[in-house]
Amino acid sequence: xxxxxxxxxxxxxxxxxxxxxxxxxxxxxxxxxxxxxxxxxxxxxxxxxxxxxxxxxxxxxxxxxxxxxxxxxxxxxxxxxxxxxxxxxxxxxxxxxxxxxxxxxxxxxxxxxxxxxxxxxxxxxxxxxxxxxxxxxxx
Length: 139
Known about the structure:
The structure is a single chain. The chain is mainly alpha-helical. The protein has a domain at 37-120. The chain has five helices and two strands; from the N terminus they run αααββαα. It has helices at 17-27, 36-40, 42-56, 105-113, 115-120; strands at residues 79-83, 100-104. A two-stranded antiparallel ribbon has the order 1-2. It starts with 16 loop residues before the first helix and ends in a 19-residue tail after the last helix.
């Protein structure tokens, strides 16, 4: 095998300072924390959240899942709305009150971290129930 000498180093290429600065200005644009579509649906989600909490009047997993109802963090709401159909399987499940249940923080964390147990007691489903459609569309 013939070995070659490393290439000779020459003068580095000259940079166009204006192009570099323009690129740096473009790359500093912050990424939005939420999409415009999600931001537009925030009021719909809040309405669904109110409906579910009023309907359930407390944690639906009390006595079904292990542990006592309670609060983990003061930064979170005492009752959280849990979608029984994951958003990965049905993207608009968070806008349909029929597939949402109110859970306390402890049971919401448990249902999220233990999907097989949550599915066994009906707090998680693999697909939406027949007859449910996207919000605003007839069945």
